[in-house]
């Protein structure tokens, strides 16, 4: 009996250590998401070019994701999760270590593409692992969003600190690189779960769903991969201008709306993670949160006082950016337990398409009016809600 308890404790300890190591990667990932934008002036000066060119280099990350997501997802199922976590970390380390020393745009763009590939490799190895060590539950994948939010909150403060003291901007790249190097050493000694063993236990859920229902559920979840990302992008890009130009709020109030969105996002992560820890109810939760996000957007559109807009922005952050996208991915993995890596890749591939197309569409709409650009989110949210309700009905009919 003592031997069994000892083995169980070792398993629990290893699981917690692995989870923490994966979360640390996404703390750095949160920094990587904003590091080029936060250092645009310094990079432009270093390359003797304009901010517009730096913005062009940033697009390389999106290109890298689009190229790599389908490939890394499929290969992570055939090889192993740990390999792709390590690949993602190594590519991020190369990106962070080399970018401050990049002397020309071509080299910088190649590094940005490598970062996009690293992002896809990290996702393919991490989301799948967290679901597998929690017996199919998505409670841990939601926490990824919390660590990302912490990273993209701290990085701008670090950049400001370095700039205010006239220190080298490259330190903001070196510090996250050092964190990753230390975590790489840590992860090398951690054992990842056996993929096949976990899949055997989950296959019954997938096999009980008819082929036709599975096709419709797949279409719904692919659409959701696009719409869930599109909603966050539209809100973060346009809410400040919408507050200023359409709602005629003060500058400080308009900027505060984005802060409230972030607070709502972090709160949502904690609440959703707690709920999923108590009960596996991903399908119902995603529907409720999508309908809540839709309601929040309608309230913002109809609001006549700043307080109402602020409250709705907080609610929208909670419901649309509190880990609901990650929860949708968990539902998708339930359908194809033997292909979790491939599913992660294709799900975020559609999210990457949103990151490329949404700025183009909303940019065009903004020429007709800022209100039109922002309220495009209501249409996206409506489409998102319809498709997640479809998915919930399919999954619910299967359980009955």
Automatic annotation (TrEMBL):
GO annotations of cellular component type: plasma membrane
Keywords for this protein: Membrane, Transmembrane, Transmembrane helix, Transport
Topology within the bilayer: Multi-pass membrane protein
Pfam families: MFS_1 (PF07690)
Subcellular location(s) per record: Cell membrane
Keyword Lyase: no
Recorded superkingdom: Bacteria
Transmembrane segments: 20-41, 47-71, 83-101, 107-130, 142-161, 167-188, 215-236, 256-276, 283-305, 311-333, 345-366, 372-395
Domain named Major facilitator superfamily (MFS) profile: residues: 18-399
SUPFAM superfamilies per UniProt: MFS general substrate transporter (SSF103473)
A GO term, aspect molecular function: transmembrane transporter activity
PANTHER family per the UniProt record, alphabetical: BYPASS OF STOP CODON PROTEIN 6
Similarity comment: family membership: Belongs to the major facilitator superfamily.
Protein known as: Transport protein
């Amino acid at each position: 009996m003592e031997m069994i308890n000892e083995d169980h404790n070792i398993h629990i300890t290893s699981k917690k250590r692995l989870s923490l190591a994966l979360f640390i990667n996404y703390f750095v990932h949160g920094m990587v998401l904003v590091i080029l934008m936060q250092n645009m002036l310094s990079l432009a000066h270093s390359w003797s070019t304009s901010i517009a060119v730096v913005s062009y280099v940033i697009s390389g990350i999106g290109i890298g994701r689009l190229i790599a997501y389908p490939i890394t997802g499929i290969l992570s199922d055939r090889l192993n999760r740990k390999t792709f976590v390590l690949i993602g970390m190594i590519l991020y380390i190369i990106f962070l270590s080399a970018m401050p020393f990049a002397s020309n745009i071509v080299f910088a763009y190649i590094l940005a593409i490598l970062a996009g590939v690293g992002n896809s490799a990290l996702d393919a190895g991490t989301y799948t692992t967290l679901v597998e060590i929690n017996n199919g539950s998505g409670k841990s994948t939601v926490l990824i969003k919390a660590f990302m939010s912490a990273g993209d909150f701290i990085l701008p403060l670090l950049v400001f600190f370095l700039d205010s003291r006239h220190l080298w901007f490259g330190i903001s790249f070196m510090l996250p690189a050092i964190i990753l190097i230390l975590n790489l050493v840590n992860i090398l000694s951690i054992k990842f779960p056996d993929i096949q063993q976990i899949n055997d236990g989950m296959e019954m859920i997938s096999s009980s769903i008819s082929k036709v229902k599975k096709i419709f559920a797949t279409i719904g979840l692919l659409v959701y991969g696009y719409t869930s990302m599109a909603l966050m992008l539209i809100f973060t890009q346009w809410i400040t201008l919408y507050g200023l130009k359409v709602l005629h709020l003060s500058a400080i109030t308009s900027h505060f709306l984005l802060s409230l969105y972030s607070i709502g996002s972090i709160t949502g992560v904690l609440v959703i993670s707690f709920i999923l820890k108590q009960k596996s109810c991903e399908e119902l939760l995603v529907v409720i949160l999508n309908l809540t996000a839709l309601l929040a957007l309608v309230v913002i559109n109809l609001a006549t006082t700043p307080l109402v807009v602020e409250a709705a922005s907080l609610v929208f952050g909670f419901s649309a950016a509190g880990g609901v996208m990650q929860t949708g991915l968990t539902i998708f993995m339930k359908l194809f337990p033997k292909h979790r890596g491939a599913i992660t890749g294709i799900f975020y591939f559609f999210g990457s398409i949103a990151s490329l197309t949404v700025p183009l569409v909303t940019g065009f709409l903004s020429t007709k009016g800022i209100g039109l650009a922002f309220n495009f989110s209501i249409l996206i949210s409506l489409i998102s809600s319809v498709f997640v309700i479809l998915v919930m009905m399919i999954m619910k009919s299967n359980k009955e």
